[in-house]
TrEMBL record:
Organism per entry: Rurimicrobium arvi
Cross-referenced InterPro entries: cNMP-bd_dom, cNMP-bd_dom_sf, RmlC-like_jellyroll
Domain Cyclic nucleotide-binding: 12-110
Pfam family, one: cNMP_binding
Name the record gives this protein: Crp/Fnr family transcriptional regulator
Length: 196
């Protein structure tokens, strides 16, 4: 398992010695997911977070009409979970599945608590991640209320630059809240304007 990716990620926020790194790595479980395999299904209890080494997950809900609403993509170097279910130990509202073959490191809630006991600086690491996630989610809500579809697409491109050409159009459309047909027209217009 290539652990350098997650160690590099933690070093952006906290300093670890070799023993602390090894202890952290010992608490992670490596898992591979085939395309469309679920990390979490709605109504299950979420008991872990996943750090993506390769591939991509998406988190989404499905409304009563069967329409998918994508809340997050998690490409390489991103964490993903259903925070509500993980912290409350109540059934998840989200589905999380792999958009392509995905390799991830799973950290169970139990192991995360052990990590906090043994290496308290990890509380800082995860606090920063949760704060960043809270800010991003609040901004996303405001963007959906205030920005045009074209502006939301531009925001998607800046947030997920590696996904612009790898994620299916209908997934991007579900994320920004438009139909795939509308996205197709708008995308052509957007690239004409930004490359011209």
């Amino acid at each position: 398992m290539d652990t350098s990716v997650i160690i590099a990620h933690t070093r952006r926020f906290i300093e670890l010695d070799k023993q602390e790194e090894l202890y952290f790595l010992s608490l992670l479980q490596e898992k591979k997911f085939s395309r469309k395999a679920f990390l979490l299904r709605e109504n299950e209890i979420c008991d872990h977070a996943a750090f993506v080494l390769s591939g991509c997950f998406r988190a989404y809900s499905i409304d009563e009409n069967g329409v998918e609403h994508i809340l997050q993509f998690a490409p390489r170097n991103w964490w993903i979970t259903d925070m509500y279910s993980l912290l409350s130990h109540k059934p998840a509202h989200l589905n999380i599945d792999a958009l392509e073959e995905t390799e991830a490191l799973l950290l169970s809630r139990k192991n995360q608590e052990m990590l906090y006991q043994e290496v308290p600086k990890f509380e800082r690491y995860f606090r920063i991640l949760v704060e960043n996630s809270l800010v991003a989610n609040r901004q996303r809500v405001l963007d959906n209320l205030e920005l045009s579809a074209k502006e939301r697409y531009a925001k998607f491109c800046s947030t997920y630059p590696t996904l612009i050409n790898s994620v299916p159009q209908k997934q991007i459309a579900a994320y920004i809240g438009v139909t795939p047909e509308f996205l197709s027209k708008m995308k052509a217009e957007y690239w004409r304007e930004t490359s011209g």
